[in-house]
């Protein structure tokens, strides 16, 4: 099936003789070697597909190339080499007019500091994208109000931006993107400037909206916990290169290199893992009791711990047809929490002894 968005061997080099630089990078040179010549390899050989309706997260430290990559996805930056296809169309073939059209109708961006117009009401701010498209006032206000309501801002339509908290202003930015009907959202650190609690709130809101809106979203963050909460799949960037792409579980349980492995040490595994990820998939059938309390493959880890604490035998994991698909013995839960976790005691009372458990995936 055709991907919504497809990047193939994308490079972006800033500075002198970019084509020579790409050649050197293809032959294995890294960023540092090029920097000596005053050339910056912002993105190096990035390839990925984003499927319709998915949240694809690009995660990496500051300077790893995330924003540059994102700007190539909507044609704001032209790749030095490689291609971007949107619904099968090569962006470079669209020309300036085609690209402007694409950016005003099909792709919306939400930035970290969403610049609202101070002398326009919240409604007018949310309607801005539609105004640019030439949508008549009555319709754009109706659609703006709908989008504001989706973002939890019903009742604030007539307010001024400076009457809103930072989190609410950011939601106006999201509403502006949603009001346009663009079904590809590019979000660059959209929640990074918010307080932790409000940030979580926005993450929840985005996930909730996504259940019904089913937009295709590329979300950029430097926060791995945020990446794991939001991403259907995550690409981890380092020094311009994508060093692993996979689901949160892939990244957490099967890091492909030392860099990713060092990153995931601080992740709260209990928030990411589900019964399906931690269960033993070769149950004999007699070690668990399916008549007692059971789990499903998508039962969150914390809930699984609570169930386990109430049972004296392993938890049975049943699929939608109530077929036994796995079991989770209590020691297994502790094993999956990893060495860096604070209090696995909440799960089974064995506390730090969990480190001795060798039963890891
Ligand atoms: N227009 C430009 N000219 C020269 N160098 C640039 C330009 N834009 C970005 N860079 C360089 O490219 C590299 C990647 O920058 P980019 O902004 O894509 O990183 P990022 O991952 O988004 O970082 P951050 O998390 O800080 O936003 C950096 O070294 C940056 O200095
Ligand atoms: Mg950036």
TrEMBL record:
One BP term from GO: glycine betaine transport
UniProt keyword list: ATP-binding, CBS domain, Nucleotide-binding, Transport
Top-level taxon of origin: Bacteria
Alphabetical list of CDD domains matching this protein: ABC_Pro_Gly_Betaine
Database matches in SUPFAM superfamilies: P-loop containing nucleoside triphosphate hydrolases
InterPro entries: AAA+_ATPase (IPR003593), ABC_osmolyte_uptake_ATP-bind (IPR051921), ABC_transporter-like_ATP-bd (IPR003439), ABC_transporter-like_CS (IPR017871), Gly-betaine_transp_ATP-bd (IPR005892), P-loop_NTPase (IPR027417)
Keyword Nucleotide-binding part of the UniProt annotation: yes
GO cellular component: membrane
Species: Streptomyces malaysiense
Residues of the signal peptide: none
Name recorded for this polypeptide: Glycine/betaine ABC transporter ATP-binding protein
